[in-house]
Amino acid sequence: MQAIPRSNRELWWAFTGTVLITLVYLYVVITWKQIPPARELFGHMIGIFGFVLMLMTETLYTMRKRSRLAQWGRMSTWLQFHIFTGLVGPYMVLLHSSWKFNGLAGVTMLLTVVIVASGFIGRYIYTAIPRTVDGVEIEADELQRQMTAIQAQIEAQSRLSNPTRQQAKELRALQKRLRTLQRQVSSLSVARRMLSLWHTVHIPIGMALFTAAFIHAGAAIYYATLLR
Fold first, then answer.
1. Residue 162 has what DSSP assignment?
2. What pTM did the predictor assign?
3. CA pair distance 93, 199, nearest whole angstrom
4. To 5 degrees, how large is the angle CA 120–CA 122–CA 125?
5. Do 25 and 36 form a contact (C-beta atoms < 8 A)?
6. Which tens digits make up the pLDDT trace of 164-202?
7. How far, in Å, CA of 83 to CA of 17, rounded?
8. For residue 138, what is the DSSP state?
9. In the chain, N or C terminus with fewer CB closer than 10 Å?
10. In sequence order, what are the beta bridge partners of 131?
11. Coil vs helix vs strand at 34
12. d(Cα 22, Cα 16) in Å, to the nearest integer?
């Protein structure tokens, strides 16, 4: 059971998505010669899509993580999707605001910024804990077993009197992997405590955010649509 190395691929996807959305937004601004109002079609649509992405962020990954029967893809892929939607969705909601942050809409936007910042922190705490591709935490004794096996390989490689370039490269890779495992073992308990503390803060903020968002959406539909 080997720990899966993490990548920043989802951050690049989110960056690419926000750049494309920004280009569309700037095109609309230039064409309309004004910032798109939140109450108009474009403002409504970008807000709806952003809110749907935020809902997907809060629901789909959690459902996959807690599912014991259905295995809908790898947990690492779901985590990447969770981070992608958690960045792109709030950005679209920000554009929907027309840069006006009064009343409940302002509170919702503030909570959105806080939850995104909290999500960044949680991502790095979460990825500090070694996991398998299915998201299962690797225990300290398993890490120790891997370290013992790698140390044995390093000792065997070190005994070679005239190693080839490929063997020298493999030895450096083993030494690097051993250092990574040593860091993970030393920081595992701390990372778990930090993740537990992070959950106690992040979850209530998320609940407050979506409560405010649903109230805001309901009020917008009532005042902007039904009372026209």
1. S
2. 0.66
3. 24
4. 115
5. yes
6. 778 788 888 888 878 877 777 777 778 788 888 888 888
7. 12
8. P
9. C
10. 137
11. coil
12. 10
The label of the residue with tokens 């798109």 reads 36
DSSP H helical ranges for the chain:
9-32, 41-66, 75-96, 103-128, 140-158, 165-221
Read off φ and ψ for residue 125, nearest 5 degrees. Answer: -70, -45
One-letter amino acid of 41? L
Distance from chain centroid for Cα 61 = 10
Cα Rg of the chain, angstroms:
23
> Do residues 93 and 51 make contact, with C-beta atoms less than 8 angstroms apart?
yes
Instruction: Extract the tokens encoding 194.
Output: 């930090």
Q: Say if residues 21 and 95 touch (Cβ distance below 8 Å).
A: yes
Question: Amino acid identity, residue 204?
Answer: P
- Compute the C-alpha angle 211/212/218, nearest 5°: 90
Domain ranges of the chain: 9-138+188-226
**Pairwise CA distance, residues 59 & 91, whole Å:** 18
Distance CA 98, CA 176 (A): 49
At 6-41, the pLDDT tens digits run 557 888 888 999 999 999 999 999 998 888 887 778
* Residue that has been written with the tokens 């044995």 in this structure: 152
Q: What tokens were used for 77?
A: 């892929």
Token pair recorded at residue 174: 């083993």
CA angle 6, 8, 14 (to 5 degrees): 140
Q: Mapping DSSP to helix (H, G, I), strand (E, B) and coil, where does residue 154 land?
A: helix
Residues 6+ apart with CB under 8 A from 57: 82, 85, 86, 89
- Give dist(CA 114, CA 214) in Å, integer: 17
